[in-house]
């Protein structure tokens, strides 16, 4: 039996897609409690396999994209697994842009699983990312038990929350001199990229969008969910500074009838943020607003006269991060609290250059990271460092879990103060 792991040829692309759950109509995610799905139905609509013409069209589009890096597992000449990295920039502390490889659709067909093919695919993608100069890998995990072994760890979180319309009074604020506008998909496709570009410059964890990120927005209804609807906010000068898209799905039960589901929401400033939520929370003939994939530290809570009215119904990990190159990643961000720290990474078989003791000297302008033979302040695993890297997570919690082992006094406190960011990192879309 021969096993190859390499970039698929154009002729192999249809079989490459067929190895991936999303092209096969197979589940792509662990069974999500109904609470994750925004709408009143327990599940999104069923999936179906993509037709052959669709696979060919994807192949043409994907292979024309310099930022798409597919890798296939080929056993005895047959494509049985695949994955791909997408080159993005991610906003890191200090509001800098760091190149990263985002792992997207991944699958090994059922009869070839548990024989190490994903590990080989992942290793190949790590090596290629390092060659491209991407010191960080990220992904969204279909199951929480798979990716820790490859060095990934949750780095951003997301929350789903609900607010009953009757409880949604906002605290008083100055009049908004801007304006709100109901928009169609064509307008939304223009507005989103501009708003997102401004938002991601400020929000740690946000990503550069792929070119097709907004192309698929339509005005067409989807099943009982109804069409996506778009709401735009403009500032006093008429420039778009916020946008939401939402649905008003039909519900089979009286309890969930009148639900407004906010599928996406971005605003570049507090005025636009408040104005958009004001309308969405007081939409005639609705009784409940549901938003999902929102930051845990949603400012809306502090706009409400009754902060408890915003009820988080689920929270979960969102983006998982994996530092591939410790010095380049840590030198790629800034540190609000200046400091020096010496730390040891004891074990990293997939990225062995990370192993060793590192001396970090950091401040608001950046950092220097060098190998040292000196005494470490602490030892930690690559997963813990990958979570803390974007400024989320708690160094104290990792220490409590035995994942950070302090050697010197206050080492964990120093690590926490140097790495943490406020607000916590968040990414508004997956890939
Ligand atoms: C980023 C994303 O795209 S998330 C989507 C991932 N895709 C899916 O979930 C689709 C359905 N699942 C699959 O296609 C496959 O099971 C994959 C891709 C998840 C794993 O592929 P495999 O080739 O079986 O993985 P591989 O044999 O390399 O396993 C590597 C290790 O992970 C473990 N592992 C793999 N899948 C799972 C799983 N679902 N649950 C728990 N452990 C797992 C293996 O036991 C193995 O452990 P070891 O290192 O201790 O030996």
TrEMBL record:
Q: Name one Pfam family in it.
A: Acetyltransf_9
**What top-level class of enzyme does the UniProt entry assign?**
transferase
Gene Ontology molecular function, alphabetical: acyltransferase activity
Q: InterPro entries of this UniProt entry? A: Acetyltransf_17, Acetyltransferase_Eis, Acyl_CoA_acyltransferase, Eis_dom, GNAT_dom, NAcTrfase_Eis, SCP2_sterol-bd_dom_sf
**Gene3D superfamilies in alphabetical order:** 3.40.630.30, SCP2 sterol-binding domain
Q: Indicate the family of this protein.
A: Belongs to the acetyltransferase Eis family.
* Record-linked PANTHER family: N-ACETYLTRANSFERASE EIS
Query: What is annotated about its quaternary structure and interactions?
Result: Homohexamer; trimer of dimers.
Q: What is this protein called?
A: GNAT family N-acetyltransferase
What organism is recorded for this protein?
Tenggerimyces flavus
């Amino acid at each position: 039996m021969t096993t190859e792991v390499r970039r698929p040829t154009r002729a192999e692309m249809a079989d490459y897609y067929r190895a991936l759950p999303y092209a096969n109509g197979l589940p792509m995610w662990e069974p999500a409690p109904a609470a994750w799905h925004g709408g009143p139905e327990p599940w999104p609509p069923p999936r179906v396999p993509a037709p052959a013409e669709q696979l060919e069209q994807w192949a043409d589009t994907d292979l024309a994209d310099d930022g798409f890096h597919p890798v296939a597992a080929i056993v005895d000449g047959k494509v049985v697994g695949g994955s791909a990295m997408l080159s993005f920039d991610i906003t890191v502390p200090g509001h800098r842009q760091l190149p990263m490889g985002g792992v997207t659709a991944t699958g090994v067909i059922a009869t070839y699983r548990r024989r190490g093919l994903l590990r080989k695919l992942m290793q190949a993608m790590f090596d290629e990312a390092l060659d491209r100069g991407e010191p960080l890998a990220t992904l969204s995990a279909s199951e929480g038990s798979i990716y820790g072994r490859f060095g990934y760890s949750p780095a951003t979180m997301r929350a789903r929350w609900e607010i009953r319309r009757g409880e949604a009074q906002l605290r008083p604020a100055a009049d908004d001199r801007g304006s709100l506008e109901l928009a169609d998909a064509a307008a939304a496709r223009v507005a989103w990229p501009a708003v997102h570009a401004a938002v991601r410059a400020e929000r740690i964890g946000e990503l550069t969008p792929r070119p097709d990120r907004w192309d698929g927005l339509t005005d067409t209804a989807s099943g009982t969910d109804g069409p996506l609807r778009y709401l735009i906010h403009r500032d006093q000068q008429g420039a778009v500074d916020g946008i939401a898209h939402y649905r008003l799905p039909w519900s089979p039960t009286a309890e969930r009838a009148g639900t407004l589901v906010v599928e996406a929401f971005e605003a570049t400033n507090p005025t636009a943020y408040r104005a958009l939520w004001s309308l969405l929370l007081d939409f005639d003939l609705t009784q409940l607003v549901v938003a999902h994939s929102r930051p845990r530290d949603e400012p809306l809570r502090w706009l409400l006269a009754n902060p408890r009215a915003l009820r988080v119904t689920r929270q979960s990990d969102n983006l998982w991060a994996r530092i591939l190159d410790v010095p380049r990643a840590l030198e790629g961000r800034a540190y609000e609290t200046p400091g020096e720290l010496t730390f040891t990474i004891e074990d990293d078989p997939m990225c062995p250059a990370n192993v060793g003791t590192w001396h970090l000297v950091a401040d608001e302008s950046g950092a220097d990271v060098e190998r040292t033979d000196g005494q470490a302040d602490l030892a930690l695993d690559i997963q813990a460092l990958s979570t803390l890297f974007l400024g989320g997570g708690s160094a104290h919690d990792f220490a409590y879990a035995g994942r950070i082992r302090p050697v010197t006094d206050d080492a964990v406190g120093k690590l926490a103060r140097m790495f943490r960011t406020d607000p916590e990192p968040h990414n508004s879309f997956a890939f």
